Amino acid sequence: MNIQIRKDLGIILLVSIFGCNNSPETVNENESMSNPLLSEWSGPYEGVPAFDEMKVELVKPAIRKGMELHLAEIDKIAGNPEEPSFENTIVPMEEAGKELERAFVYYGIYSSNISSPEFREVQKELAPEISEFYSKISQNTELFKRIKTVYENAQEDSLPAPEQRTIELIYEEFAMQGANLNEEDKERYAAINKELSELYTRFSNNVLADEENYVIYLEEDQLGGLPESYIKSAAKAAADRGKDGKYAVTNTRSSMDPFLTYSTERDLREKVWKNYYSRGDNNDEFDNNEIISKILKLRDERVELLGYDNYAQWRLQNRMAKNPENAMDLMMKVWPAALARVEEEVADMQKIADAEGANITIKPWDYRFYAEKVRKEKYDLDSEEVKQYLELGNLTQALFFTAGELFNFNFTPVEEGTVPVFHEDVKVWEVTDKDSGEIIGLWYLDPYARQGKRSGAWATTYRAYTKLEGEKPVLASNNSNFIEPAPGEPVLVSWDDAETFFHEFGHALHFLSANVKYPTLNGGVRDYTEFQSQLLERWLYTDQVINQFLRHHETNEVIPDALVKKIKKASTFNQGFATTEFLASAIMDMKYHTTDPENIDPDKFEKETLKELNMPEEIVMRHRTPHFGHVFSGEGYAAGYYGYLWADVLTSDAAEAFADAPGGFYDKELAHKLVKYLFAPRNAMDPAEAYKKFRGRDAKIDALMRDRGFPVPENN
C-alpha cells in the first residue's frame, strides 16, 4: 500500500522516509524552470503528468529547484507582518509547493515502478537533502509562531469545521515533529532525520537488490506440480533475463507463493522459501540488521527529545488506538485463537503427509503445499480450478461494476496515446459520474511485475481532490505485481490476489470520492485508512459480481454454484496461518518500538520474542525483520502495522451491517452512508465519529472473530 506525500510534514514519506543534508544547491533558473518534471501539467483533464518526458537525469535538478521554490513561499508566509490568521497563514501553506509536488510524482514512479541503478544513486544523494528541506519547514520558528497563534485563537473561538480540523491537524503535526523544542534539540532532531533518511533508503534498496539477485532457474524436469500458466510465465521471466529454455522463480511474493503451493520438488521449495524469507539477512553487503539497529536507536532518541517513553507512544497518540497498550490488547485477544487454529491446521497437514508416506515433519516450506492438499480434501476445493474463473480483465470489470453500484462511477478506457504513461503496461480509464457525466478523474493501472518495480500492491494519487485547489479531476493509480503471461495467454490470479486487487481499488475509490476543502484533509489515520479498502474486498463474494464476472477464461461459463459454495465454505480455511503470520509481524513491530533499543540485536530479538510468544515452528512472520519495508524503509507503518487488524475489526463490523441491510451489499441507503461518512470525508472528520455516523455505534470485535472462525471472547 503507497504512502501519500504530505507537504505539511517535517518528514516526507514515499517508499522511504527522507532525512536531511546540506541546503539544496542553487540551480540555474532558466534551466530548472524548463524542466518538464517541474512544469505545470498540460493536456486533457486539466493537465496530466508528462510521463513521456521523464528522464532520470531530470530528477535531481527538479527536486532541488522545487524545494528552493517551496522554501521561498514558506519564508514569505513566515515573514508576513500582518497578525496571523487562517487566511494569511494556513491557506497559503496549503497552496504552497506545487512545483515540488509535481516533481515528487515522477520521483515516486522511479522509486516504486521503474527503479534503476542510476536512479538509486540519485535517491541516495537526494534523500538527506529532502529531509533537511522538510526540517526547515517543521522547525521554522516564525512559521510555527503563526501556526500556534491561529491554533490558540481557534481553541477560544472555533472556526468552521473544515478550517478547525485543518489547523488542529497542522498544529499537531508540527508539535509532533519538534516545533516546540529549543534550538539545540531542534538541531539534533533534524540531524537524526538526516541519518534516518539515509538508512531508510539503504534498507529499501538492499531488499530490492536481494529480490533482483536471488532468482532460481529451473530445468524442464523440475517443474513437477506447477500449473501450466505458472510454467509459461516462468519461461517468459527467464527469457526476459537472457535465460531462454529455462524457467525463472523470482524472489517476489507473486512468484514465491504459487511455487510453494504447487511444486512437488521439496528441496526446491525449501530453496525458494529461504531465498524469499532471507531477503536483507544474508550477511553480505545488502544485509539490513545493522541498519535496523541504528534505526531503532535513532527513533528512540528522537522521541525522547519530545518527552515520550518510546517510539510507539509518540506514534500512536493520534491514531484510533491512541496508545500501544490498546493496540497490543487487541492483538493479544486474537493471538491465542490463531495459535490454536495453527495447531489444528498442522495436524491436518501432517496426517496427509503421513498417509502419503512422505516421511517428513511439516516445515515452513511445506505449509502452503500441504494446506492446498487439505483444502482439496476438506472442501474439495482446488485453487487452480478457481483460478480459471479469475481472469484479470474480467476482475477489472468487476471493480468497475462495484464502483458503479456503490459510488455511481463509470469507467471508460482512454484511447492509447491520449494520456502519457511511464511504461507500456500501464492502461488508463476515465472516471465519470453515471448520471451527470461529470468527470471525476482518471484511473491508471500498472498490473505486472518487472525488474525495478517494488514487490506487493499499492495505490497512490498523482493529483488529489480539494476545493481549495479548484476541484480538478483526481488522478489515481493502482499498482500490482501479477506475473505477466506469455503472449496470447490470459492473466489468471488466485482468490487471494483477487481480494488484494479489490483491496487496492478501495484505496483508489477513497481518492476518487474525496470531498474535502484543504489538502491536509486528504491525509488519513493509519489504523483507519486500511478499513475502507478491506471492506471493499467483501464485494468479490457477492452474487452480483460472481454471476457476471467470474467466468471461465476459455468457455466464458460462469463459475459453477457448487464451486462458489466451496469457496464460501472454505473462507475461514487456513485462517490460523494467515492470522498468525500477520500478527507475528504486527506484534514484533510493536515490541521493537516499546523496548529499549540499546542492546537489540534484530536477529536475536526476533527469535527470542517469537519464542516467548510460542510462535509455531511451521510458520514465519509475514515480513521478517530484515525486509520489513512497512516499518524500516520509512515510518508510515512503524509501530502501526497492527493497523490492518484494527481496521479489520471495523471491516467485519461494517460488513455485517451490509449483510443485515434490506438490499444486502447493494443497499442504496447504506451505500450512500458508506460514501458520505467513510469515503468522501477522508480526514476531514474524526474516524471514530465518522464510523459512529455510519454504523450508529462503535465497532465490536465479535464480527472479526466470527469472520475468522475463532471463538468470540466473553464479556466483549
TrEMBL record:
Its EC number is 3.4.24.70. Residues 78-186 form the Oligopeptidase A N-terminal domain. Keywords: Hydrolase, Metal-binding, Metalloprotease, Protease, Zinc. It is an enzyme of class 3 (hydrolase). InterPro entries: M3A_DCP (IPR034005), MetalloPept_cat_dom_sf (IPR024079), Neurolysin/TOP_dom2 (IPR024077), Neurolysin/TOP_N (IPR024080), OpdA_N (IPR045666), Pept_M3A_M3B (IPR045090), Pept_M3A_M3B_dom (IPR001567). The keyword Zinc applies. Residues 259-708 form the Peptidase M3A/M3B catalytic domain. Pfam families: Peptidase_M3, TOP_N. Its cofactor is Zn(2+). One of its GO terms (molecular function) is metal ion binding. GO terms for cellular component: cytosol. GO terms for biological process: proteolysis. PANTHER family: DIPEPTIDYL CARBOXYPEPTIDASE. Belongs to the peptidase M3 family. This is oligopeptidase A. It comes from Christiangramia crocea.
